[in-house]
Amino acid sequence: MVREGLRTVLHSPRLARSPLWFYEHGLGGLLGSQLLRLEHRGRISGQPRAAVLEVFDRPRPGVVRVASGLGPRSQWFRNIVAEPRVRVTSGWGAPQLALARVLDQREAEQAFQTYRQRHPWRWAALQGTLAERLETGRPPHEVMPVVDLELLHTEEEAPPRYR
Predict the structure, then answer these.
(1) Cα(51)–Cα(18) distance, rounded to whole angstroms?
(2) With 36 labelled, which of 95, 97, 104, 147 sits at a CA distance of 20 to 30 A?
(3) What is the DSSP letter of 158?
């Protein structure tokens, strides 16, 4: 049942984008702390873009980890590679400036091992759906990029090129 629901959302751009409405109307807290709104810039247009993503992990204070469930071709992922300065909104909180960093293969493999251990039922539900969308036969850390979003408390914390 969960797998069918995930499949429906992933195959319907309108449904996949529907949580944005909650954040745009100040109701992001209703979605809980397992989702966040990622604001980024279009790599070609430079226009503001937004995506709602599942929080993959919170490895340490001030860092939120997400994964690109559609692989490296996901638009939000391609955009943050081009411009890692983003804004993150989680729950009822105000948007925070963050710097995105793509984990290397070793770090991503460890992140997936931790995720499987902490969330076995989520992993079981996602595994089948993701196998349909990504290259099969390869481990998830090779086809699903993992990104750390380092939250910055003020703009002054950002390196000059990110201000």
Answers:
(1) 10
(2) 104
(3) S
Contact 84, 46 (CB under 8 A): no
Enter the pTM of the model: 0.80
Q: How many CA atoms lie within 13 A of 51 on its CB side?
A: 20
Do residues 88 and 98 touch, judged by C-beta distance below 8 A?
yes
Q: Is residue 55 part of a domain?
A: yes
Decide: 34 and 74 in contact? Cβ < 8 Å: no
Structural domain count of the chain: 1
Q: Is residue 158 part of a domain?
A: no
Residue-range definition of the domain harbouring residue 72: 2-93+100-151
Q: Each residue of 44-82: pLDDT tens digit?
A: 999 999 999 999 899 999 999 999 988 898 999 999 999
The residue behind tokens 């949580």 is: 19
Q: Which residues contact 115 (CB under 8 A, 6 or more apart)?
A: 56, 57, 122, 123
3-state secondary structure of 53: strand
CATH of the domain at 127: 2.30.110.10
47 is a domain residue: yes
Statement: residue 6 has pLDDT above 60: no
